[in-house]
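Protocol step 4 of 6: structure prediction from sequence.
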Amino acid sequence: MKKTARVVLIVLIILSNLLCANMVKGDDTNDDGPITNDILKSESWEVAGNQAPRVSAGAAIVMDVQSGRVLYEKNAYKRSSIASTTKIMTAIVALENGSDGEDVIVSKKAASIWGSRVGLKMGKIYKLGNLLNALMIRSGNDAAIAIAEHVGGSVEAFAEMMNRKAAEIGATNTNFVTPHGLDAPQHYSTPYDLALITQYALKNKKFCKIVSTKSSTFEGNPINNTNEMLSLYPGADGVKTGYTGQAGRCLVTSATHSGWRIISVVLNCSTRSVRAQSSKILLDYAFGNYKIYEYLKKGGQISQVGIHKGLSNAVGICSDKDISIPLKKDEADRIKVEYDIPKTLEAPIQKGCRIGTVNYVLDGKVLASTDVKSTATIKRKDFYYYFDRIFKTWARLVHQH
């Protein structure tokens, strides 16, 4: 009997060690060594070359923030585990449905979650704004649970909010189960969807401020951003790291140069060094090979359209939005502008009404499109207009005689 018990104990110890060995580590874990500037010194924008880059990431993408144009992709539409890059959506849902000063009471579930943590205490009250910093800077899983329960009422209800927002953004190949991203069978996204979600999130100024912060404090203790690119890549200004055993090392980066902002996503990298170097290669490729071409300014007059039976013979037309597209030089030579605008319009015309569209097309693919709107209100020539014309003509003739 004692021998059997001893065998069972040994088996349990072995299983426990195996479980610990395979346990998902938090984003802050630096188990594969520090990243040095030497890793990012190889190549520059000027020598990045026109050839599509090769990266060790399992899946990746580069996207222009303004136009949404994809500049590079590798398995970009394949469903993958995304680890703590999940927290990009957690943050934006919280920012849109809560305010910094709200009190958040920490539950047992939040306080006891494993992985990357900031040490929240069960029953203690924290401000939502402080928890958002802990979420995105220190990648606190406990902060993620606390935020989800406060904003959504429960983790499950908050996940539904995340999924509704993903659908609204257009991230249709994404499903969220948790607010922290620890491995779960039905929790997934793609590089493309993550880029779309990030593109949306970067419109929020408060989000941008948090994810660009290198270091801060939480409850009097210093916290450093888990995003190595903020310190290693010139112009890097976000966004979020991730790491689980299933997802590997993940990183969503935004970087800005000369007013041009792009997003890179790398998933399933073997080490932090690999994800940093893969991100650098992709950013260098985009900045080194593409240039922003500005075609239209919102509100800027494009042309005029004739008006039939209007008090004016023509009305100005303008773009409904800015059109700026990142292009390689040879692409800029090939891009075509297609106008879908009528030659004449029937009065009356209201200022701001949609007149048509302008499309910018490269090799048969629409890269950018905008509605074209009228710049003024043009009234129609009615009975009173013609009567007035006849009366004035008659009066002039009488006066002449």
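Step 5 (inspection) to follow. The chain has two domains: 32-289, 295-383.
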